[in-house]
Each structure stands twice: as structure tokens, then as C-alpha cells.
Structure prediction request, 983 residues.
Amino acid sequence: MNTTSPSPQPRYSSLSDQPWYLPLGDEVEVFEAAYQARLPVLLKGPTGCGKTRFVEYMAWRLFRQADTPRRALDVPLVTVACHEDLTATDLVGRYLLSNDATVWRDGPLTGAVRSGAICYLDEVVEARKDTTVVIHALTDHRRVLPIDKTGELLDAHPDFLLVVSYNPGYQSALKDMKPSTRQRFVALDFDYPPPAQEAAIIAHESGAEPAIAQALAAIGLKVRHLHEHGLDDGVGTRALVHAGKLIRGGIDSRRACDVAIARALTEDADVRRAITDVCDVLLP
Amino acid sequence: MSAPEVSATSSIALDPGRARFDAAHRALALFAQAIGQRPVRLAPSPAGAASAWLRPMPVDSATLRIATGMRGLGTAADHRAALRIAVMRETLRGNVPGFSSATAPPRPRHPLRPAPPTPNSPRRLEQRLFGLLERMRVDAVIERHYPGAHADLARVQACGLAQRGAYRPRGALAALIDGLVRASLGEVGRRGLADGEDLLPPILSLADTVRRPGASAQHCADTACRIALLLKGFATRPRPQRMTFTVTGAMHREPGPQMPGDRPGLTRGGGQGDDDDNQADVGRRNTTPDAADEAASPPTASKAQAVSDSAAGGAAAPASASVSPADADDAAEVVEDEPLPGTGTPARWRAGARSTTGTFLYDEWHHLERSYLRAWCRVHEHRLRGTDFDFAQDVRKRYPDLMRAIRHRFAQLRPMAPRRVRGVASGDDLDLEGMVAAVIDRRSGSASDDRLHVRRDPLERDVAAAFLLDMSASTSLALPEAPTSADRSRDDHDSPPVVDAGTLLYGVYGSPPDAGNLIRRRRVIDVAKDSLALMADGLATLGDTHAIYGFSGSGRDNVEFHIAKEFGEPVRRAVWAALAAIEPRGSTRMGPAIRHAAAKLARQPSPLRLLILVSDGYPQDTDYGPDRNSEEYGIQDTAQALREAERAGIATFCVTIDPGGHDYLRRMCSPERYRVIDDVAALPAALGEIYAGLTSRGG
Prediction:
């Protein structure tokens, strides 16, 4: 007798190749210092501004560089995209049926705690409130993970680090992070890169021509002015990169921006038209 | 409580550019915000693009006036692109005190106060030159930073030049300014008239500096002053041409027959051909700044219309020789004499903020005949759209405590205990009963079910609520509140009467032209809007699906049903802006509005469906029943509509702020289904409590 795999579907990254990341401030140094002190890290910032890429880059630096003693770990980064149905059970683990027996399967968080990986809970405030219990125990001086169902109190591996992210302007008031939780983390604020750096990122990630990359960065800057005035969220660098990739793939630049930016951002016809207009006047 | 809505059909027919603007103005306003980094309002201006630039920037810089009168463009796409260029130009335009805002826009005028006579005050030359140079600077910015707009800009400029092609300036000064205007539209190689030919190159050279990267509006202002000095110096030259300057600074032709286009109110210099006197007059007057300024003189009243009709892209050209010679600045006066949005034809302006999404026919109950009038009422459904995206912030500032209280109250309505769902493939725990059954099945050789987990889902409320707001003109009544210090400090001469303005407006004019501009006090509709905004905020917290509608209209064929928020639509900025766009208009034909709202509500799958009607008086419309003086027909039809909704499984509740509401509400519905709120200001809090009470006890 088999059961289907429970949610969530975490991403286990081996990070064999170095992720490309363009530092915009001292975030790399701060993260490394936090890791040395094993302080959990909270990344705040809007959608698509590079939080996930940053974590991948830092995991690579901490676990894959030639001089690190942690290179032996197969999976240095476990990423969980949190959602409103994600429970503590999903993170910690559950009993599954195997033939006539029940067997325990570690959840992604437990796996990372045991192995000493970085566990990255993306958009953590989307998860159900019971996840707070396990997060609190892991993020104070105890660094333990209580597993109710097995009665285990799991000490975190010395190399383990919890990283969470959320978008302060995205969730509703009900889903805001509690102060008692926030204060357990070192908080790094992320924002969209300045146009020059964003153009460099777009050019690198998409392979688009510099002129196109600059135009896309300018589009991003302008469209973000509609945030909270028709748009619930600004356009992320990721969406601009998507547009660049489509252009690189031979799609007309305006069509590419239409599908990757305007239509991806909103269903409001007027807002979409305004974004299309911005793209139209800025693209060569 | 009825009033016919102001119709602007004729204005649409006469001004296709305005109609195009109306259709696109929200998207254009958002576009302007993206380009200019700040929210703005757009107001149409029928003048051509260039002429609009000759007008000083309004003091209210949050409102951009967009030229809609461009002609000579080809397709609809070209017109849309030209509007976009106009928006970009206005958005990127700079503001220099003393140049841009020296002339305040006309104050909103009370409708009963007669319009003041249009003054023939001369405009300062520097201001107009500044307008031209600013356009040149902004066009250069567009060319540098907006490559995708090059073609559109070139088309608009070419259109302006083409319109100006036939214009023949009379007089060297006018020719110099004409040359500058043409240069601002991209024309190269222009030569001035013989008399001013030597002056045109240095003027153009000076003007060209504003195109350089880094040039600012201040640079334009400085350059305008320098060019004005050159022009005024030119005006002092002794020339063989005979020009006269009157005491008002107006430049005139030599004495001759009265021209049909001559501007009234200006004295014609020179009397009966006394050339010497005229020449001497030049010597006396030419030192005044206004002397050369009048090369850009305001047009005549009759000419104003011609310019308005012909203005396109560039500055206007006189249509015929019968029109007195003037230069590009002519059209500016036309623009300035126009009413600002909100003061002249606000109904049309508001109408642009909504779009009809469907028309529906509904029966109406004739209580005397005890039968329905089939397909009697025509309901036009509109989607409300607005640009005031700060409305949410405003409401939060006005009601910080109440907003928290409503959220807290609604949060208490949420069920806290999770719901256990058995027999799922994955979940929080194993389902022991299911496991036992599965083991038994397996051992008995039967197929077993592998869905052996228990999942704890949060228990959800399942409520669908529709709020239906009476948006009739009577809701424009001002609230009886003490005037603020700002109100008291206002000049009484400029202040319209406030206390009975609402009554006055809908009693005399039907729909008020724009009560928001005329009445500074908060109105009934403002409180109602705030109430609905608070409900939307609270319900977003609670998670109940809800819709917010309004209704108004005039006559059975024109019942207007306005949608601010539909079911399932998240409470986003667009919804806030739509709520902010709610304005009083028309009458109160409740029956068809209730039927339409109920029909929409009936499509919701929720077991508890609730319709809440918020009104300020009894139902009334121009043809709501055989006797216009009797409200009984409307009351009975409304009662019937409420009964129909109840029969369809929809709980209804009526809230009125009319202290006399008991008289008719008790005939429309049962006592537990309505509430009369004596104090309008209490509506926001009361509505929240009413909703909580209705949904916590199951309607």
C-alpha cells in the first residue's frame, strides 16, 4: 500500500554551478556574518527582486567554494515555497503507510536540520500559523526542532541555517509576520536594483542586447510607479528577464513585453494598456 | 428626489477627440503616473497640442490638461498615439514660479452666479515664450529617452506644422514668433521676414539651447526672458513698416476697414489714418512689456470657435483672411477660457469614468393593477472606474479607530476551529478508522482505499453579500457640520453658499454640475462611500465574498447600475478608485436596481446571500408610477422587488439615513429587515454592526 507524496514539493539544490548574483550592497557580507553566528536570516522585498537567487548564491558560497569544509553535503539548500495550506506537518514530516507498516518520513525542514543544510522558507507568512511553533524553536538559542508525532526533540546540525523571506507589502494584515517572530531574525531588505544594475542583470540573465536590457530596466522603473495605484505589486526583475529572453528568442520586443510584463501583472485592462504604453514609448 | 442626469451627447458628437479621450483617460492617467512618478488627473482640453502649451501651467499641478483637439491625424491609433504624446508632454513639463503658475485657473463658479465677463488682459510675452521653449525642451527629452515615441512625436509635430502651413503672419514681430513656433515644431531652414530676418537666427540659436541634455525648466524661463528682450528691442527699432500700439499694448494693423475678426474691446490705434500720430504712438508705448506681447494677442470671441475647430498639433492658423492676424498664441486664450473639469461639463467628465457592460430588462410591479409591467425597465450596467487611488488612505485617515474596530469585530466572526477532512490522500494525521478498514479490506482480498489521511482545514464562512447604494442626486446634500477654519478664512465673494447647496442644486439643475467642487463640506454620498470602503476593508479581512453596487438613473429606460466591486474581485487599488468615483446623479428607481442586484447575488453559490440596500430616501423617479406626485407606486414596486429577492433565497436589509424612513420602510419590509439611522455620520459604524449581526445570526 502506497500513499501519494504529501505536499509540499521542496526543491533540493545541489548547486553544482555557481549561481550568478550581482551584489547591490553589503548583503553578502552581512549574510556571511550571520551564518558564522548561526543567526537566522529574514529577507524582505518585493516579488522578483532577487531574494531566492541571493540565497542560492550564498548557499553556494558557504557550501561549494573550494576552501569550505562543508563541500561534502549533497544538498546544501532546501527551498520550500510556502502557501496557505502548508502546515507544520508538511515541514516537519509525517507517517506514511508502507505495506503493512507505518514509516516516518522527514519533511524538508527536518531533513535540513538533520543534514546541516540551509532551509529557505519562501513567503513564510503564507504558511499556516502552526508553522510558527517549529520556527520559534529553531530560531532562538535552543536551535531544536520538536517533532510531536515521534516525540523527538531534534538538535539542529551545527551547519544548519534557517532563512525565510516575505514581501511586506504583498500579504494582507492577517498574514503579517508577528513581531515575536521577526525579532528572531537578522533582516535584510531587498529592493529592485537601480536601472544600470538591473540592465546588467537583465542582459546577463536573458542574453538580450544592451540597448534592449536598458529599455527593459527603464520599463521596470516606470511601471513600478503604478505600484499601489493600479498594480498590487511592482514588476520584478524576473519578469523583465523573461521579456528579455523572449526577445532574445526572436519575439518582437513589444509583444514580448506584452506577454511577459503587461499581461502577467494585471487583468485590469486600463492598467495593462498603461503598461503597454510605457513599453511602447521606451522600446527602440 | 429625482433629477435628470446631464446629458453630453452633443459634446461627444461635436468633439470626437474628447470622446477618444474619455474612452482612454484612465489608462492615460496611469500612463502619466508611470512616466511622471506621481498620480495625476487628466482633464480634456479641446485645443491643439501646441496651443495648450502657450497657456500657463495650472496651479493645481495634479491635474494635467490634455489637448484633445488635434486634427489631421489618420487612424484611431494615430489619435491615440497623439493623446499619448500630449500626456507625455504635460507630464514631463516643468514648473517655474512666475512663469508656469502666474495665472491661476478660474475658480469654480457657483451655478447661480453669472459668468464674469472675459477680461482682455494681455498675457506676458515671457510666459508664452516659456511655454514654447518648455515644449521644445520636453520634446527633446522625449526624443532622447523614449525612442518608441519618436515616430508619434514626429507625426504630431508634422501635423502641427501642416496646420500652420497656411498661416501668414502680418508684421515682423509676429513673423519672428511664428518662426520660433515653427522651430518648436521641428521645422528647419525657416527664414524670417525681411524686417526681422537678422533676428531670427539668434533667437533660434538661443531657443535651441533648451534642447540640450540637462536643460531644465528654469533654463527655459531664463531663455524666454532673453528672447523676450530681443523681441522687445526689435519692437523699438525704427522701421518703415507702420505699426501702432495702443495703451493696452495691442498691436494693430494700419488703419483700415473694420475687419470682421477684430477683437472687441481693443481700441484701434491711429484714428483715421494719421500715420505720424501712429508712429509717435509707437515711440510712447513701445517700452511697455506688453507691447510686443500682444503679438500673441487673445482672439476674438468669434475667432475663438474657429481656432478651437481648426487647432491641431501646432498653433492655430486663421481660417480666412477675414480673421485678424495673430500668431500661435491665439489658441491659448481659447484654452484658458474653457471651464476646468468639474466646473463646466462634469457629467460628461464623470461619464468617461464608466463604461456600459450590459443592458437588462426587468419587469416592474404595478400595485394598482396587481400585475407586472413586462420588460418595463431598462437597466444599464456600468463599471465604475476612477483614478483616485489614494481613497483608501484617505478613509484610513478619517476613520483609523473605526477601521480597526470593524476589522476586530469581523475577525471575531471568523470560525476558529479547523474542520477535519477525512479520507484524503495526504494530510496532517493518519485516519485510524480508514486504516482499520483498509487492513480488513486487504486481508479479505478486497481492493483497499489508499486515502488514509486526515486533513485539518480551516472552517470557512460562506457568505455572499451585495451592497446596493442609492447614488441619487439627493445624496449630494452637505452634512450639517461646523465649517473648518479654512472655510472661514475663505473670501466670501468666492465662496458659494454651502448650507442649502445640495437642495439648490438638485432642485434647480437636476444633477449638480459638480458638487465636489462647489460644496466643500462632506456630503451624504461621501459618508456612504466611506462606509462602503470600510465594509470592503473589513470584509477583505473576514473573507466574505461581496460586491458593491450603486444605482441611479432617469426614467424607466435609463436605470443606471454602477459596479464598484464585483463578487470575487479582490479589494485592490482599482476597487478603491472605483469607490472614490461614486458621485451623486439622477433618481432613485429602487425596484429594478434591487432586481438586478438580486439576480447577480442569486448566481452566488453561498448558502447565505445577503442584499443590503443603503439609501437616503424613498424611491422616486420621473416616471415611477402614473402619478408623479405619489410615492406609493415606487414604494410598492420596491417592496415587491424585496419580496422577490427573499423568495429567491436572498436575505435583504434596508438601511436609510432618512429620519422619516420609518414611514415608508415599514410598508416595504418587515421591521427586523430595516434600520433608520438618524445621524448620517453614524452610518459607517452602524453598517458594520448591521452586517456583523446579520451574518452572525445567519441572516
Q: What stands out?
A: The radius of gyration of chain A is 21 Å.
